[in-house]
TrEMBL record:
Gene3D superfamilies in UniProt: Spore Coat Polysaccharide Biosynthesis Protein SpsA, Chain A (3.90.550.10)
SUPFAM superfamilies according to UniProt: Nucleotide-diphospho-sugar transferases (SSF53448)
Species assigned in the record: Rhizobium esperanzae
Protein name: Glucose-1-phosphate cytidylyltransferase
NCBIfam families noted in UniProt: G1P_cyt_trans
Length: 257
């Protein structure tokens, strides 16, 4: 099963980082968030990736071309023009990076990689800026069991602000960042039938506004409910929160050894 990751947006709300690199290459614990997302899927045995690049996509290509170089010790023999790598590990990943246009919308990017999908074989799809302790294997099994065109991971968003409990005129206690209001939202981490690409007419198609709404209206979109950890990285504040979790050694999305 292939995994498609949308990684081409401008990341304007994280301009402190994205002025020099695409958002999926912004690092958590010294590794791009894109690497973290791919590691989640790889933990569940999915290691054939299609990266939908756009803004500064050449840096994503360069990252994967030089991945082993970046994360291993090396000996360079200039006389023989050879490089020997020492220690480290090489992910068992197959990575296809596709230029899906600078200004394509989310649906448009998915439409651009239709020729890389396997006809009749479901594929996973997610955004290049969010992590979670999603049970991908369970979601894939759930998707295969219901026979619909699409499955969406439905999550409860993390709270942004602390709350207070008030009795009369007295504040009696504080609650640290309670989770949302009970409503679930699109958490990415989709499982999709390749036929959904036929719902994308152009680069201007927004996946969430057109195809996803059609799937919901026609009872072709199932919800895989996830009650564990999920966190997007839309702002510098959220990036710092993820960094703190990683530095503490308690990152909930780190499912791999």
């Amino acid at each position: 099963m292939k995994v498609v990751i949308l990684a081409g947006g401008l990341g304007s709300r994280l301009a402190e980082e994205t002025s020099i690199r695409p958002k999926p290459l912004v690092e958590i614990g010294g590794m791009p968030i894109l690497w973290h997302i791919m590691s989640i899927y790889a933990h569940h045995g999915l290691n054939d990736f299609i990266i939908c690049a756009g803004y500064k996509g050449y840096l994503i290509k360069e990252y994967f071309v030089n991945l082993v170089l970046h994360h291993n010790d090396i000996t360079v023999d200039l006389a023989s023009n050879s490089i020997n790598y020492h220690g480290g590990t090489r992910p068992n990943w197959r990575v296809t990076v596709v230029d899906t246009g600078m200004y394509s919308m989310t649906g448009g990017r998915l439409g651009r990689i239709r020729d890389h999908l396997t006809p009749g074989e479901p594929f996973c799809m997610t955004y290049g800026d969010g992590v979670g302790d999603i049970d991908i294997a369970a979601e894939v099994a759930f998707h295969r069991s219901h026979g619909l065109k699409a499955t969406m991971c439905a999550v409860t968003p993390p709270g942004r602000y602390g709350a207070t409990n008030i009795e009369g005129q007295f504040i009696t206690s504080f609650v640290e960042k309670p989770r949302g209001d009970g409503q679930r939202i699109n958490g990415g981490f989709f499982v999709l039938d390749p036929s959904v690409v036929d719902l994308i007419p152009s680069d201007d198609t927004i996946w969430e506004a057109g195809p996803l709404e059609w799937l919901a209206a026609n009872n072709q979109l199932a919800a895989f409910k996830h009650d564990g950890f999920w966190q997007p990285m839309d702002t510098l504040r959220e990036r710092n929160q993820l960094e703190e979790l990683w530095s503490s050694g308690k990152a909930p999305w780190k499912l791999w050894a």
